[in-house]
Amino acid sequence: MRLIRNRVWALVSSVFIQSSGAQGPQNQPPAFDSVSVAESGEITFRVFAPKANSIKLSSSDIPNLMQGLELKKSEQGVWEGTSAKVPPGAYRYNFNVDGLSVIDPRNSKTSESNMNTWSLAVVPGSADFDLKDVPHGAVAVVPYYSKSLKKFRRMHVYTPPGYERSSEEFPVLYLLHGAFDCDNSWSTVGMAGSILDNLIASGKAKPMIVVMPMGHTGSFAFGPGNSFEKQMEEFVTDFQQDIKPLVEDRYRIKKGRQHTAIAGLSMGGAHTLQIALDNLDHYAYIGVFSSGVFGIDRGTGPDSPRAKWEARYSKGLKDAELKKGLNLVWFGTGKEDFLLGTSRETVAALKSYEFDVQFDETEGGHTWLVWRDYLCDFAQRIFTK
After folding, report:
1. How confident is the model at residue 66, as a pLDDT?
2. By C-alpha distance, which of 237, 259, 243, 229 is closest to 183?
3. pTM to 2 decimals?
């Protein structure tokens, strides 16, 4: 047996040595960091691709890079490009190599979105979401079987520092993502774990459980014939019948309206309004980030989106008793956001039904640069009474 193992090892070693020699030193990548952040905030990206003809860096998060960043090739075959100064935060990116989008092969940090994966670059310098020497909670990947959808699903769940060692019960925030994201997004590019850790450590937020479910129920795309409305309803059903009961059964949460919050960005903000207005007695805190009732700013006739919305949610809108235990309805939208009109009209509609709505119009657009800040703001406002 020892003789056989020695012969196998000799054969493997021979193949490795031959292949390494055949590769040649000219094809070996030089030493380099694929991502480096300057103290001034510029990010330099590098990738080794000696046979590529062109490489462009793509990112929907990095300011002023919507059209991409052309990288330049060195004599060693390393392509390089540097962004302008960017604020502290996490940024998704990938490389377009001769027409093929690929993640960074030298960067283990990734972030999932809707139907694809991105590499992740982190620029330090934020008091809110930098990783600090404070007690840390945990983010778990939680698979479950959805009886309503008849398939396996997934969510991410944050538990606060010390959860595993205690018997204490905690309030719960259901935190929903947008149309181009997934259940992984809030805890990666959204940096939800670090935000909650830092807020809890500083006493600015109450320790809480944060549930980040998957908002899509299948393949998703905008445009004619898409399944957007169908999937919106399917997720609400999954949330009501599967996600919320599972969380209440599996985790030590404080039961009751005063200990329950729900918030979401973009598509998740629309989900938030759907779920909350149908079950207003279940939630004391509602947060809507860069969102509202889709189409509400388009017309006011009997067949308009607003009229249909008012008819669909008339009980939650008109019942004064349901509003009595509602501590917070908070909207945040950037002044450059394409859904700013949607937010404004939704806020106005809710106020017309005597909801006490707080609306912050901030700088920024439809981007994670503002959504991280919104989570930080909203988390400090909830479970305070």
Report:
1. 75
2. 243
3. 0.91
Average pLDDT on 65-90 reads: 93
Q: Are 175 and 222 in contact (CB under 8 A)?
A: no
SS3 readout for 283-336: CCEEEEECCCCCCCCCCCCCCCHHHHHHHHCHHHHHCHHHHCCCCEEEEEEECC
179 strand-pairing partners: none
- Burial class for 359, CB neighbours closer than 10 Å (0-12, 13-18, 19+): middle
Tens digits of residue pLDDT in 323-360: 999 999 999 999 999 999 999 999 999 999 999 999 99
Closest by Cα among 312, 255, 241, 248 to 284: 255
What gap in Å lies between CA 127 and CA 169, rounded to an integer? Answer: 28
CA 126 to chain centre: 18
Residue 244 CB partners (closer than 8 Å, separation 6+): 174
Q: Which residue has the tokens 């899509």?
A: 216
Q: Is 103 helix (H, G, I), strand (E, B) or coil?
A: coil
In contact, 302 and 279? CB cutoff 8 Å: no
Q: How far is CA 77 from CA 46, 102, 329, 335, in A?
A: 10, 17, 54, 42
Q: Are 298 and 262 in contact (CB under 8 A)?
A: no
304 phi-psi bin (left φ>0, alpha ψ -120 to 50, beta other): beta
For residues 75 and 50, the answer to whether their CB atoms sit within 8 Å is no
Element (H, E) at 97: strand 89-97
Give Cβ neighbours of residue 289 (< 8 Å, ≥ 6 apart). Answer: 263, 264, 265, 266, 268, 269, 331, 332, 333, 370, 371, 374, 375, 378
Q: What's the mean per-residue pLDDT of the chain?
A: 91
Nearest CA to 337 out of 143, 198, 127, 178 is that of 178
Q: List, in order of start, the domains of the chain with CATH numbers.
A: 29-123 (2.60.40.10), 138-381 (3.40.50.1820)
Kindly state the tokens that stand for 297. 């700013």
